[in-house]
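in:
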């Protein structure tokens, strides 16, 4: 499977759209996570708590751990991860959210062709 010309690294793109049904519960859970994170300096904890209280997307970002997606996958070690969240307008009926159409925009190598 692995040859000298094949990289051992894989970039996994995952896009999720989540509906927040209980913003207060989400915020409370994020504030609890922040309050119990011993690795977070007090100044950062204060800033994080303020951001989470104002924005549900920020609260979600404090609760999602990309490492948990692959933590139990045999033979795989997470090398690097980044993620972000944002509030969006979502209409599942529009072309923008047609995940089946996503494949049509891919080039021969699996990369998305953005027309440039």
């Amino acid at each position: 499977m692995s040859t000298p010309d094949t990289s051992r690294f894989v970039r996994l793109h995952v896009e999720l759209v989540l509906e927040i049904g209980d913003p207060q519960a989400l915020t409370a859970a994020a504030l609890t996570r922040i309050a119990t994170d011993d690795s977070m300096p007090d100044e950062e904890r204060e800033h994080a708590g303020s951001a989470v209280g104002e924005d549900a997307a920020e609260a979600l970002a404090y609760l999602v751990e990309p490492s948990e997606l692959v933590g139990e996958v045999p033979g795989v070690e997470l090398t690097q991860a980044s993620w972000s969240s944002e509030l969006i307008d979502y209409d599942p009926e529009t072309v923008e959210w047609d995940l089946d159409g996503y494949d049509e925009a891919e080039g021969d190598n699996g990369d998305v062709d953005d027309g440039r």
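note: DSSP finds four helices and no strands in the chain.
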